[in-house]
Design brief:
By secondary structure, the chain is mainly β. It is built from no helices and 10 strands. The strands form 3 sheets. Strands 5, 6, 8, 9 and 10 form a 5-stranded antiparallel β-sheet that branches. A 3-stranded antiparallel β-sheet has the order 3-4-7, with no helix packed on it. Strands 1-2 form a two-stranded antiparallel ribbon. It is elongated and about 45 Å long.
Length: about 150
């Protein structure tokens, strides 16, 4: 096999000055004066959708959770700068069993959960998210509040 023996006349293995051959690719221009593997000096412009957004938003703070009319809960939180929305979860246990009750709420700082039992304790938590290029990035969960 001429390619395995290093024969320069084999197809795809010839090189010209200033180029190198990488496996499964064609001749690639070498970077002048930079170390192997170092990024070249050309940089891409910032993506306008991601500009000014970090990977994870800050965690919102639950400011209050209050029972209304026995079967409703009004959940209020402090907005997080740069968040695209919020996700609220509820449980009947303080540390487990949380289920999503609402996602979205962009630009809002309160939500009313209906249909609760009068003589039961409920626990709520919230987190913020950003959506960049179709992918969600979530903050940590807030501290749990009980009603």
């Amino acid at each position: 096999d001429s390619a395995a023996s290093g024969d320069a006349s084999a197809p795809g293995t010839s090189t010209t000055p200033g180029t190198s051959v990488t496996p499964d690719s064609s001749a690639v221009p070498e970077l002048g004066g930079s170390a192997a593997g170092a990024p070249d000096a050309v940089t891409q412009g910032a993506d306008p959708q991601t500009e000014g957004k970090t990977a994870k938003p800050k965690t919102p703070k639950l400011t209050s959770v209050k029972r209304k009319a026995g079967t409703k809960a009004v959940i209020k939180w402090k907005k997080t700068a740069g968040a695209d929305g919020y996700e609220i979860q509820m449980s009947t246990s303080k540390n487990k069993g949380f289920k999503k009750i609402k996602k979205g709420l962009a630009g809002k700082n309160s939500f009313t959960k209906k249909g609760l039992s009068r003589n039961k304790n409920y626990y709520f938590r919230i987190r913020s998210y950003r959506k960049v290029n179709g992918k969600y990035s979530y903050s940590a969960w807030s501290k749990v509040k009980k009603i």
